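wait is this the right file?? whatever heres the structure
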């Protein structure tokens, strides 16, 4: 999250101070305020840290090795040591079942969802091993195909039967029923079940990884835990309504249709996973037990997630300013239904938001223009009291009072826009609809625009030329030039202004060069609108 905040704070510093730099104090005040925002946001959304747990849960079974084509005929209620899942699972051992855009690959060994593929987006989900029970991971289940599902069954040598039935429902969910028959012949009827594990499906992507998150609801209270870089286990206690894992775009959610009061989140070989512990009562069980789970796997879509029940749609979250982000998402979705293009929808939403916040921008720019007009008098005071800083400060404040100017008038209106900037930044980075969505020369709004592919890799630029960040840097440079044209700065202040007019576009161009083009498009349009308005206000007498 620190990268997110830095971009916004730098943007605020750039916007709230047009770098007519006779206002050094004002500039540094903006930086200090922005830094405080950064510190506060970092405190609210910290990096993953080791989390102390109340009890030792190391005895819980860990993810175990699969054994394809091995018919195991003895109960494995507990395994002696943790063994990592074999990620090179033979594709011939998988059975594929399609449901809309998703293709589920089921493993017969263990009877679980090994992987999920999205046909529409042409991507393998980072979520895997959904429904795996570690105690049964070595069992080679027989399979029986259902009209909209699949049934796995395993018979122990003693005569006990384990069944795992996956049924695809019309509402987009999956019903997972686990039946234990002849339980007198089982060593234990309690087990752990994997909600899922997160692992990279492609090349390392820091933007995608930092959005790895687990969330769960206990007694109607939702807790969220970042699992990127997780080291210490996190224990979940209390009646669990639902628990889920999500990455940047997708999620897997389990809602137990029984009482489940314990779970834990762990990481193995940098692959975080979420597991629930099902404690069945042997005395009350009789000869058979059936546990049912309502499961959702797919895009983070609130409407689809609502089918799980118990407010499972709360898995979707855009950070501290979630409410604002979802309001913007609603507006963006409505406009997209009209224009049928996500790029154009971003342009229109950016324009609408700009004019909604126009009063704040106008107040800020008007204040800056008054301050510019006051620069010659402030320069005179600096010369007059160059050897007495205290008198200079008093004289400057008296001048502000006489001219009825608030030196902070240009800073605070822009700082009030921080929630909108944060919300848009999070939204445009996580909006799954942007994947594969084109606009003008852009083929994928969730990735850099990649106008030209280069034969060789260059420093900073890499092996592609992205046009949008360069256009954005150009607009910012023009914005600085317009500001300089109406400035009364002289001497060292004018030199500072010229230097910043070059530095800031370069810095922002560098920061945004590898950003998703949908996000850069927003900043470009917003900067262009600000340039037009600043030019008009600078042209007024």
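ok assuming it is, sequence goes like this
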């Amino acid at each position: 999250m620190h990268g997110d905040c830095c971009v916004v704070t730098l943007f605020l510093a750039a916007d709230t101070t047009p770098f007519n730099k006779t206002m050094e104090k004002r500039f540094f005040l903006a930086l200090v305020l922005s830094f405080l925002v950064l510190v506060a946001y970092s405190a609210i959304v910290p990096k993953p840290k080791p989390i102390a747990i109340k009890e030792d849960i190391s005895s819980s079974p860990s993810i175990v090795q699969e054994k394809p084509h091995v018919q195991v005929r003895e109960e494995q209620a507990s395994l002696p040591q943790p063994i990592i899942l074999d990620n090179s699972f033979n594709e011939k051992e998988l059975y594929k079942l399609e449901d809309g855009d998703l293709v589920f690959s089921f493993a017969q060994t263990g009877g679980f969802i090994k992987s999920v593929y999205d046909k529409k987006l042409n991507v393998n989900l980072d979520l895997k091993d959904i429904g795996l029970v570690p105690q049964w991971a070595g069992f080679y289940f027989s399979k029986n195909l259902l009209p909209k599902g699949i049934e796995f069954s395993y018979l122990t040598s003693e005569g006990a039967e384990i069944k795992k039935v996956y049924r695809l429902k019309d509402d987009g969910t999956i019903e997972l029923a686990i039946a234990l028959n002849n339980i007198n012949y089982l060593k234990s009827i309690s087990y752990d079940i994997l909600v899922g594990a997160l692992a990279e499906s492609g090349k390392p992507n820091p933007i995608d990884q930092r959005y790895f998150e687990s969330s769960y609801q206990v007694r109607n209270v939702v807790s969220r835990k970042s699992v990127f870089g997780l080291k210490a286990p996190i224990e979940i206690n209390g009646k669990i309504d639902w628990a889920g894992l999500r990455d940047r775009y997708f999620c897997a959610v389990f809602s137990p249709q029984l009482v489940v009061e314990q779970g834990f989140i762990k990481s193995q070989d940098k692959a975080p996973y979420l597991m629930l512990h099902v404690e069945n009562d042997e005395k009350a069980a009789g000869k058979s037990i059936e546990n049912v789970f309502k499961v959702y796997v797919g895009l983070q879509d609130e409407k689809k997630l609502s089918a799980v029940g118990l407010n499972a749609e709360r898995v979707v979250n855009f950070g501290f300013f979630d409410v604002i982000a979802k309001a913007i998402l609603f507006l963006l979705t409505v406009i997209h239904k009209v224009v049928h293009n996500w790029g154009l929808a971003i342009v229109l939403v950016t324009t609408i938001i700009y004019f909604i916040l126009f009063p704040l921008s106008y107040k800020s720019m008007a204040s800056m223009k008054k301050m510019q007009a006051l620069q010659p008098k402030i320069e005179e005071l600096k010369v007059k009291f160059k050897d007495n800083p205290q008198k200079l400060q008093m004289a400057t404040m008296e001048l502000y009072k006489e001219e009825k100017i608030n030196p902070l008038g240009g800073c605070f209106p822009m700082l009030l826009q921080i929630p909108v900037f944060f919300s848009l930044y999070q939204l445009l980075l996580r909006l799954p609809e942007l994947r594969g969505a084109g606009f003008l020369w852009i083929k994928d709004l969730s990735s850099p625009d990649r106008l030209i592919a280069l034969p060789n890799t260059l420093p900073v630029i890499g092996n592609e030329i992205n046009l949008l960040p360069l256009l954005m840097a150009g607009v910012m440079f023009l914005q600085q030039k317009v500001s300089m044209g109406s400035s009364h700065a002289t001497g060292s202040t004018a030199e500072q202004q010229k230097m910043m007019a070059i530095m800031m576009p370069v810095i922002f161009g560098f920061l945004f060069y590898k950003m998703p083009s949908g996000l850069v498009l927003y900043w470009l349009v917003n900067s262009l609108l600000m340039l037009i308005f600043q030019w008009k206000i600078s042209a007024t007498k």
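The longest strand covers residues 288-299. so i think its the right one actually
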